[in-house]
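Help wanted!
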Amino acid sequence: MTTQVYSRWDHLTPVERQVLRGVFWSGAASRGALADTLGFSKSRLNAVVSNLVVGGLLQELGPLSSTGGRRAEHLALAPDLGVLACVDLGATSLHVALVAPTMTVLAERREVADVRHGPGRVMQRVKTLLGDLLAEQRLRPEDVLAVGMGVPGPVEVHSGLLVSPPIMPGWEGFSIREDLAGLVDAPVLVDNDVNVLALGELWHARQPAGDFLVVKVGTGIGCGIVSGGRIYRGADGAAGDVGHICVDPLGPRCHCGNVGCVEAMAAGPAVARDARRAAEAGESERLAEVLAETGRLEPPDVARAAREGDAVALAIVQRSGQLVGMMLASLVNFFNPSHIVLTGGIVGMGPLWLASIRQSVYGRSLALSTRHIEIRPSTLGERGGVLGAAALGLLGVLDRGGRP
Amino acid sequence: MTTQVYSRWDHLTPVERQVLRGVFWSGAASRGALADTLGFSKSRLNAVVSNLVVGGLLQELGPLSSTGGRRAEHLALAPDLGVLACVDLGATSLHVALVAPTMTVLAERREVADVRHGPGRVMQRVKTLLGDLLAEQRLRPEDVLAVGMGVPGPVEVHSGLLVSPPIMPGWEGFSIREDLAGLVDAPVLVDNDVNVLALGELWHARQPAGDFLVVKVGTGIGCGIVSGGRIYRGADGAAGDVGHICVDPLGPRCHCGNVGCVEAMAAGPAVARDARRAAEAGESERLAEVLAETGRLEPPDVARAAREGDAVALAIVQRSGQLVGMMLASLVNFFNPSHIVLTGGIVGMGPLWLASIRQSVYGRSLALSTRHIEIRPSTLGERGGVLGAAALGLLGVLDRGGRP
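Answered by r_m:
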């Protein structure tokens, strides 16, 4: 590895970048499938691949081709390209990982965090954890190929700066890129957390194609939009800010100043608040017990009480699902996605919550849009954020070369 | 013209098609601007252009270039390429036009229609009107380069067939393409009316770029979506079906079976129904007068009464605008469009209605999404549909050649 890592990515031709992107999206693709996908003749592909193997960017895998002489049929990114440093920062959590270019997680750390503590304190933890992981893996900062990071606020993608992040006081105009320059001498790619999650789902789907949504329901509610296989950002980079869609014109007031926002009525804090209110009002013995025993009531506690037959807890879970489903029904009518992936802490509420969402969407959306739609939790689970950040970093290097 | 029209479009190379598309989008572009847009060197562009001029597809316009020898600087599609037969079918209206490839309307007819009469009767009128217009312009069916048609229902674009059109009984599976084959021997392109309107707006913007919405409010409410300069159709071609987005969970029942759909509460029939109810209940003298005098109350009547100071009429206009604005606010939060173009019969309700929409969107959408957003009526006015249909037909020929 070492600094040679960078030089391998410089001076790549557009066609070489295209082949590398094709290998990334396909996982370990066969030459035949890759040539088909890229619209290349097999001989043209082989010529480009030979250069990339010699240049140390691709490796050949698997049995030798039966027809093509002594060439191995399958291709993957070279194993010694360096590692991707991946950061998934949520409103109340921090997940840091080292990921190989083949998208294998090599090492990771998760801990609670609070973005409201500001960039100084939070980024110090990020750097500490990254340093620990590198040491653990016996890697040096020079071995980091790129940093990818998702943050819970709007990002101006070219600069990597946060733009008026509503739940991140003190971060406006803070340069994560400059802050990390002291740790690693590699490109730093920053994007909104739901866009990063959507990139992870795109990678998982093994192709940069399709129209679908990735909806994160946790402390807030946000949506990553995939249109034609690309992350859709909107005219000002603000697309997907669905938490303040109104689901009840007579609903309670939200911190944004409006009434009836789905985030204020159905996200994690709303579920916790409703459960605490029911416990304190003596409406639910089960919830009151949990509150008395642990001093807290979080969405998973409410879901457990609902599964155990508590009617009040069940009503809270169903109400949250119904409201999220109403918001999604509007998006389905408008965007007609092939599927919706649900992620974020509250997804842990489980099947009762999901069933309420599905019921609400099927009931409120038009037949043509719901004929084939699938609504399911992310199969990447808690690793969706760091895997998306790895894809962000790697694609960033592929797009613009390896220098910071 | 004659049958030679077809042969000019056959055997075009991909690069030639690209240059023709560039000329179409730019209007009468200068060679310099066109080369920049396409990323061609000037000499490469000039070589392609020479072929296209010789082939009778392009014409040179304007003063001779000061630097390039005897070459005229500006380019346009050749004037004798034939005409585009354009049809804009609404739920209750029919607009037919002949349009030159330079997008000049040569002749047109508008009349009331009712799609519920079924394809036989409606298409007979389409063919009669097209025949009349051709005769009036002393053109023959062979002079028609392509037919473009917008219809008020979902269309399977490749086949041109209507798919479960909710307000078009009898049209399901009807082939407009085959029906028109008896009249003209040219490609027939069919799409949903709002997608056609969006294509017209894209042409008007002079570039196939941007993220914006075209919202038609008339008998129903529909939305054409432009994402990255292309019409976005969704996973099943059902995108933009926004009329059944819920704006009031306690609202009245819609014909779709749900409650509180924006279409049922704010489109033309709802405004007419509310006005008639107020007139009959003696709540508004002005509306009662109009009803007594003319026997009917349409949205423009309500808007006129509102402008003349009738408080009940004003409340009806504002309520419609407020509800359409609530629906648009959800779309703005999700899609972050640069602008929203309003079109359809009810847009004639005028500035009071528009002001209520804007107020509702600005009040309900997030600051980042509304910082630059523009909400305005279409500048193409009533010709938006036929101009969009012209663009649909011409781009269809550019994509696949001139044979039917």
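OP: Thanks! One thing I noticed: The mean pLDDT of chain A is 90.
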